[in-house]
Structure to design on (676 residues):
DNA sequence: CGTTATTTGAGGTGCGTACCTCAAATCAAG
DNA sequence: CTTGATTTGAGGTACGCACCTCAAATAACG
């Protein structure tokens, strides 16, 4: 049998009340008693029965996912996964909900973050980096809230990220792209929604480094920014087709590939172009099946969601996590392993 | 607030005792009462508080993983993951342990399965298919035990599998192999420990079908069986090198690639050979880094272990699972996304 | 030394459920 | 209508822990 608090009390030679005070940090306990309890915890290997504790405490955690309001298909998938996870975590006293934030307006995003964060125990934030948002997040963190960044890389601040390592993802894209492209010299187009996003920067870094080292025959051209505007994307792609005679591949860095790939379809013959894109959506899946996209670099959104929830809970309960469970894998998707 | 059993009793217009009888299938309840309770469950959306139930019941589940005793590196990794999962599930009243079975001796394996299975609530079995083992498993299942097969595909019996779809894994191998290999005609070597294993058969099927359809320039040669014997593997590989002048790739189907890849190194120049193998181990990881292996088709063993445990629990508690969480992904590993 | 502040122990209640007992109510059959 | 069987209700105890109160023991201090 697992030792209970009673066993702990006996082992430490103190009363249940004192054990409780130590375990729950209630204060008013002498140093000697605290030490005795901790020693006994080690000695008999006591671990709190979290279910029982939560039951007794009647505590329910409130976690919120803040997602961009104009998110595309990928964010749509995220909502589905959050709903799903919401149900399974409800049994464990964890309420998960979502809120849409105006991603393009850093100021309002920061304001909403502060407001919503005050009411929740944990926040999982998907938003472009900006000083305002960063400050709001750090302030919440100081107030004992637990904040996670989704999909945006380690960055410089002290907000824990959940999602793939974007530099490694870029490198993976480079490796697949390099191997899928016939040897011989060629140029590679690189597309992003905007290069002011941290994730695009990191992907580009990883992509360039790996391509330069392993595939010196391929030249990565400067990043092209679509701003998610279809017309602009077509113009850019057409210009690229005109100005570069030896384009053999394209890397679409943004999580919403549709606009860019559709533009590529107009300007190029995709049969002769290796196209690597990110994330699994209905669009990219269909494009992969149709041979328009050659490979997807993806991360499992369900895993990201569940991992974020587990990590927020672990932080709330001051516990550790199982690192290997929380590592988000960089998946390579082909038609055969969709 | 989530409705409790008290709320349920009130809503159904019956007593707590009756609610309890219905919920726990204790019998001695009139049809009308049962119907009223079920109706009320639907109406107010009652769901059992599993933590409280387990606490009250004081029940701890015993789950066992049966793994081949002479397993190689891959099985070693599995043990690590089981240890890890064992700790995290212990908090939830689930005891997870392992036992080694003599995989090559179907008779003894079946006997051990019957003996160990009788003492556990759930069994996760990794073993080659054999009528004896299959019968023992089905018998246990009839006795209310919950059995899962690890890594061995759907098969024909009614034992639920946990692990990747081996046919799709074979197809994925074919797709990667085909794209990594320079166009033009060529021959492909296919290795297995033994083709009497169900997983190898399925992988081969998926591989052949995909290769024939998409890469008609490549010819997959008959499967070569190493029986995990290094000397035999070298002989086989050397013979293949002698008899086939245009070998451009090799597919190593077994989860322990070391023996085969080492043999290939002797007989071929791996720089001119695309090698696809399975599963991430220290060996395959190093070989991938060294460029000896070009890609790995893998599954996350930690995920498999945790999924098996969750599924056994769900079966014990007669609950559903979150399908998207339990699907084991076919991972493609390159150096960049290790 | 007495006085006050601090620390400790004993005990109780409740979280939502399981599981048990016993008596009362209801039903079916003769 | 009686008898016996079946169904129902009321109530209790327990699981492991959180959180509260009150009194007793101990320490710190002038």
């Amino acid at each position: 049998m697992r030792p209970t608090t009673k066993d702990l009390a006996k082992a430490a030679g103190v009363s249940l009340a004192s054990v409780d005070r130590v375990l729950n940090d209630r204060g008013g306990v002498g140093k000697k008693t605290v030490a005795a309890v901790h020693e006994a915890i080690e000695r008999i290997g006591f671990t709190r029965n979290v279910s029982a504790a939560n039951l007794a405490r009647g505590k329910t955690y409130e976690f919120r996912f803040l997602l961009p309001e104009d998110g595309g298909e990928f964010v749509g998938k995220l909502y589905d996964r959050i709903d799903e996870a919401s149900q399974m975590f409800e049994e464990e006293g964890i309420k998960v909900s979502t809120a849409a934030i105006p991603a393009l307006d850093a100021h309002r995003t920061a304001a909403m973050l502060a407001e919503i964060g005050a009411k929740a125990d944990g926040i999982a934030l998907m938003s472009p980096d900006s000083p305002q948002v960063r400050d709001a997040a750090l302030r919440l963190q100081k107030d004992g809230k637990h904040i996670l960044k989704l999909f945006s890389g380690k960055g410089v601040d002290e907000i824990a990220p959940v999602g793939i390592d974007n530099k490694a993802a870029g490198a993976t894209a480079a490796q697949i792209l390099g191997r899928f492209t016939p040897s011989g010299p060629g140029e590679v187009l690189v597309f992003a929604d905007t290069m002011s996003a941290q994730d695009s920067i990191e992907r580009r870094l990883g992509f360039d480094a790996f391509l330069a080292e392993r595939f010196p025959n391929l030249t990565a051209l400067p990043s092209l920014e679509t701003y998610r505007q279809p017309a602009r994307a077509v113009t850019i792609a057409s210009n690229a087709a005109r100005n570069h005679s030896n384009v053999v591949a394209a890397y679409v860095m943004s999580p919403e590939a549709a606009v860019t790939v559709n533009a590529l379809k107009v300007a190029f013959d995709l049969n002769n172009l290796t196209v690597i894109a990110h994330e699994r959506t209905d669009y990219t899946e269909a494009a992969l099946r149709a041979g328009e996209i050659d490979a997807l670099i993806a991360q499992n959104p369900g895993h990201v969601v569940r991992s974020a929830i587990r990590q927020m809970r672990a932080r709330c309960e001051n516990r550790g996590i199982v690192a290997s469970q929380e590592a988000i894998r960089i998946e390579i998707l082909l038609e055969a392993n969709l």
Residues 14-18, 21, 28-30, 33, 52, 54-58 of chain A lie near DNA strand C (CB under 10 Å from a C1'). Chain A touches chain B through 45 residues (CB under 8 Å). The two ends of chain A are 45 Å apart (CA to CA).
